[in-house]
Amino acid sequence: MNLTLKIWRQKDPQDKGRMVTYRVEDVSPDMSFLEMLDVLNERLILEGDEPVAFDHDCREGICGMCGMVINGVAHGEQVATTTCQLHMRHFEDNAVITIEPWRAAPFPVVKDLVVDRSSFDRIIQAGGFISVPAGSAPDAHSVPVKKEDADNAFDAATCIACGACVAACPNGSASLFTAAKITHLSLLPQGQPERESRAKAMVEQMDAEGFGGCTNTGECTAVCPKGIPLDTIARMNRDYLRASK
Amino acid sequence: MTATIERGSATASINPPGDATADKKTPRRRGGFLSSSPGKKAVMAVTGAVMVLFLVAHMAGNLKSFLGAEEFNAYAASLRTLGEPILPHRTLLTVLEIVLVAALVLHMWAAITLARRAGQARPVKYAVRRKSQAGGYAIHAMRYGGTAIFLFLIWHLLDLTFGTVNPAGGTGTPYERLVEGFAPSRWWVTLFYVLAVLAVGQHLRHGLWSAFQSLGRAGRRSYRGLNVFAVTVSVLMVVGFLAVPAGVMAGVIK
Amino acid sequence: MTMNYTEGAPIRDTKAPEGPIEDRWEKRKFSAKLVNPANKRKLHVIVVGTGLAGGSAAATLGELGYNVTSFCYQDSPRRAHSIAAQGGINAAKNYRGDGDSIYRLFYDTVKGGDFRARESNVYRLAQVSVNIIDQAVAQGVPFAREYGGLLDTRSFGGAQVSRTFYARGQTGQQLLLGAYQALERQIAAGTVKMHTRHEMLDLIVADGRARGVIVRDMVTGEIERHTADAVVLATGGYGNVFFLSTNAKGCNTTAIWRAHRRGAYFANPCYTQIHPTCIPVSGDYQSKLTLMSESLRNDGRVWVPVKKGDTRPAAQIPEDERDYYLERIYPAFGNLVPRDIASRAAKNVCDEGRGVGPGGLGVYLDFADAIRRLGRDAVEKKYGNLFEMYERITGEDPYTQPMRIYPAVHYTMGGLWVDYDLQSTIPGLFVIGEANFSDHGANRLGASALMQGLADGYFVLPTTIGDYLANGPYGEVDEDAVAEAETAVRQKIERLLTNDGTRTADSYHRELGKLMWDYCGMERTEESLRKALERIPELREEFWKNVKVSGTADELNQALERAGRVADFFDLAELMCIDALHRTESCGGHFRAESQDADGEALRDDENFAYVAAWEHGPEGPVLHKETLEYEYVKMTQRSYK
């Protein structure tokens, strides 16, 4: 396949940035999207140009490092798929593909397609944990957990913090990310003691980082590579309202 | 290349607890409930619910026009005497009006501040227009729809409540104003009304469901039911509100 | 035989206590010096890497009150590659009452490691395994549960008891997030200072002690010096020396290799685990290999056509023309034989020309029977996410046609030599997780990596490092040592950037990887290894002459990062081959074709090789120090899974 790529290039956070058009030829349909970019980058290096910077690591859809907006859709149009797991067989020959970084004020562009997502870490720092020093835990079977609760907690806990929810949300909201962690921990008996303080602190941090508010558009869950459900946000709201009483 | 020298940290004392969060990169805002995004959404949900209850009552009242001028005018008059003789004339209605205005103002304030926050959260727009992946358009029309409904509301009050722009004027009976207001010669007003009612329907289609979500009263199991509820209520509202101009146009109400 | 190394004095682990094996860890915990709580704040520890080992260690050390600085090359500590571990984590809980015990886990691990691991370390690992599950559950790790609300377990790769705890196919993710959250909690509390997007490029050794690291800020390119009283490396394995592996793209050997250059011995570098169930390579552009959890072997049946070069689609090959070779050769264990055996068997059938898929490098893993027996729903429930992943990558539906799998490099058992305290040969340098060598011997059992990483980070290191730190603080660091390390780093970067060559670092990495896979991969011979040892230095020389790195040093420069890592892989590859060449026996993840029995099974040589090969970086080439392995509890036997 031959492709035309329009890629956002931005030298550093201060640079204004611009779209640059590249042509890539002889792309195999079995390549992953990132492998296709590797091919482009190899060529750019040999031409003495700087390769397109993009974040990636595990390339198996779990580390959450990769992510770009492809033709207007976070991680591309293939559902429940991270950019690294997206394969070129889903594109037409001679297609024009526009590639942009996540766009959100709390995710400033570092370079090209690389953004700074440390705001997510700070939301977790605010309360996304259960306080338990190593060695102090009771036997794992001392508290049974309903299978349904454990399964639902797991569903929420599969969030990979890639940031696609923020990128897709018309409000630039981080509600799905924040709610996934709140839901994971608040469904488990171990998470109860800190449940309200956690919801309050995490929501406040989310707002303080400059993310927008949730207006229930559902765009986040539609692009989420892990399919984190929207009811996590309802649970976050409930826990937050309860904590604010 | 420049070097950062971080020397002698080996035996330096540790940062006092909490210092890391005071790092310049870490924004902290001690916001109250009303400045939090879920707080604002809760305000929208509650005020929205108040206005929906009003709309239901309003629609029921409107439908009385099918019973004739006398019934309708009597109903309009009775609104002013609500609560009498325990309360002085027009007290309860005034209270209700104040509640409604407050609900409207709070609803709009929350919506506007959320929209502004959303604008700040995405200062750079995407080059390729975002496609909706969620498959709904009603939810994207909330802000435009809400604005349209507000503009309509102003007109609507001037037209049928104060009669300022009504051919029957401020002195006509409510029934006269209603019939004159939807007179075939003023087809464009009726069209405006129909569009506004449709906008209300669309607003409720998302808003009703959304209120439950914002108040944390929705869940995986209730989404289906909530959606059916939202669609049913908004369709009933649209039909109920459109019945009156339709009646006028068809000559049933005259 | 020409020697490409010299032999030095034997080495010994002086920290493991004597006496009954079940008391040793208790004894060590008691004999280790304690640090006065008031002094802990004055003691500074650097932890490099934030995977299961590094993340849990930094969190625990911070919780204890030490002053911790942590580094990772990713944009968040949560992205370390432990996150990709799928299958599960072993623990001797015996919740099933199926005969499991600490002793049995110990026994299985020593045996599974082909008698090349230390008994004391392994016993401690089995003891601590129990606490890990308790810790993880308390942190909110959503392990799979049964309807009664208790934890579910499964049996996993090579074990006959059900001791593997799991969280669907994402156990590593859930455990890592537990550690990550504990770490973030300490960051918020101010006990841990986190530096993301920082890569360690050298170790500072002053007055014979590890005193800090030189790191590069990968966003600004600044070279930074960080000093401390002790340094902990938790930087993972070096499987990416093969270019194609199941490791993340960023995984590299630079941290441990630089430490090795500074005096830390490198133990058993040739022990490489090849995972039998990966998605086969589809073309030259391939950038990494994706693992399919080994748990698939619980229900999938592995087969190839009986006939050579049979290119019919799987569905058209009748039952009697299929060779379920694992079930045929190993009737007792069948499809559940340990990884090294399953991998080599796959290679053998492909070498016979019976492989399937592009290039004939693949075997079938067939779920048709399981779907018939359990129903599609049950199979989907168990493996749904894995099947989806396979479908996404290959475009083939594993519900209707068998998966194709092939072995791929997955884990490296070798690593920096450490004693019972997890301290390397450089005082003050501790090495944990996959980066060290100690617990898995020559072959790691499935679901044991997560166990080891967390055992080291939550429970072992935080205790043993106290014994070293109790004698601190170690005072100001000699400026010359710091400057020397920094200069070395700058020179290397300078050299890479000024080289105006014609090939990219990746292209050299690919070539090196292929060479290692062909000559030092699943099967090694004296001839192949000698060839590799001839070719590696040539290729390295060419690399340094001809590599092209664009951009500058003062910015985010992924081409530069990669080139620096590849340079170290060359050196490591050479040591791996030397180690593989010197070990003329076959054991675990090291198969020498010269050392096999009549059935083609690996043949150990306990008389000559029951030792850990700890390599010192000498000016004249590697120096071998042998640590003799003694087995007091588990009798050395030839492994047999027939």
From TrEMBL, chain A:
<keyword id="KW-0411">Iron-sulfur</keyword>
<dbReference type="InterPro" id="IPR050573">
    <property type="entry name" value="SDH/FRD_Iron-Sulfur"/>
</dbReference>
<dbReference type="Pfam" id="PF13183">
    <property type="entry name" value="Fer4_8"/>
</dbReference>
<dbReference type="GO" id="GO:0022904">
    <property type="term" value="P:respiratory electron transport chain"/>
</dbReference>
<dbReference type="GO" id="GO:0046872">
    <property type="term" value="F:metal ion binding"/>
</dbReference>
<protein>
    <recommendedName>
        <fullName>succinate dehydrogenase</fullName>
        <ecNumber>1.3.5.1</ecNumber>
    </recommendedName>
</protein>
<dbReference type="InterPro" id="IPR025192">
    <property type="entry name" value="Succ_DH/fum_Rdtase_N"/>
</dbReference>
<dbReference type="GO" id="GO:0009055">
    <property type="term" value="F:electron transfer activity"/>
</dbReference>
<dbReference type="InterPro" id="IPR017900">
    <property type="entry name" value="4Fe4S_Fe_S_CS"/>
</dbReference>
<keyword id="KW-0408">Iron</keyword>
<feature type="domain" description="4Fe-4S ferredoxin-type">
    <location>
        <begin position="150"/>
        <end position="179"/>
    </location>
</feature>
<dbReference type="InterPro" id="IPR012675">
    <property type="entry name" value="Beta-grasp_dom_sf"/>
</dbReference>
<keyword id="KW-0004">4Fe-4S</keyword>
<keyword id="KW-0003">3Fe-4S</keyword>
<comment type="similarity">
    <text>Belongs to the succinate dehydrogenase/fumarate reductase iron-sulfur protein family.</text>
</comment>
TrEMBL record, chain B:
<feature type="transmembrane region" description="Helical">
    <location>
        <begin position="136"/>
        <end position="158"/>
    </location>
</feature>
<feature type="region of interest" description="Disordered">
    <location>
        <begin position="1"/>
        <end position="38"/>
    </location>
</feature>
<feature type="transmembrane region" description="Helical">
    <location>
        <begin position="225"/>
        <end position="253"/>
    </location>
</feature>
<feature type="transmembrane region" description="Helical">
    <location>
        <begin position="42"/>
        <end position="61"/>
    </location>
</feature>
<dbReference type="GO" id="GO:0016020">
    <property type="term" value="C:membrane"/>
</dbReference>
<feature type="transmembrane region" description="Helical">
    <location>
        <begin position="187"/>
        <end position="204"/>
    </location>
</feature>
<keyword id="KW-0812">Transmembrane</keyword>
<dbReference type="InterPro" id="IPR011138">
    <property type="entry name" value="Cytochrome_b-558"/>
</dbReference>
<feature type="transmembrane region" description="Helical">
    <location>
        <begin position="92"/>
        <end position="115"/>
    </location>
</feature>
<dbReference type="InterPro" id="IPR034804">
    <property type="entry name" value="SQR/QFR_C/D"/>
</dbReference>
<keyword id="KW-0472">Membrane</keyword>
<protein>
    <submittedName>
        <fullName>Succinate dehydrogenase / fumarate reductase cytochrome b subunit</fullName>
    </submittedName>
</protein>
<keyword id="KW-1133">Transmembrane helix</keyword>
From TrEMBL, chain C:
<protein>
    <recommendedName>
        <fullName>succinate dehydrogenase</fullName>
        <ecNumber>1.3.5.1</ecNumber>
    </recommendedName>
</protein>
<keyword id="KW-0813">Transport</keyword>
<feature type="active site" description="Proton acceptor">
    <location>
        <position position="339"/>
    </location>
</feature>
<keyword id="KW-0472">Membrane</keyword>
<feature type="domain" description="Fumarate reductase/succinate dehydrogenase flavoprotein-like C-terminal">
    <location>
        <begin position="509"/>
        <end position="641"/>
    </location>
</feature>
<dbReference type="Pfam" id="PF00890">
    <property type="entry name" value="FAD_binding_2"/>
</dbReference>
<keyword id="KW-0285">Flavoprotein</keyword>
<keyword id="KW-0560">Oxidoreductase</keyword>
<keyword id="KW-0249">Electron transport</keyword>
<dbReference type="InterPro" id="IPR030664">
    <property type="entry name" value="SdhA/FrdA/AprA"/>
</dbReference>
<feature type="domain" description="FAD-dependent oxidoreductase 2 FAD-binding">
    <location>
        <begin position="44"/>
        <end position="450"/>
    </location>
</feature>
<keyword id="KW-1003">Cell membrane</keyword>
<dbReference type="GO" id="GO:0033765">
    <property type="term" value="F:steroid dehydrogenase activity, acting on the CH-CH group of donors"/>
</dbReference>
<dbReference type="GO" id="GO:0009055">
    <property type="term" value="F:electron transfer activity"/>
</dbReference>
<dbReference type="InterPro" id="IPR015939">
    <property type="entry name" value="Fum_Rdtase/Succ_DH_flav-like_C"/>
</dbReference>
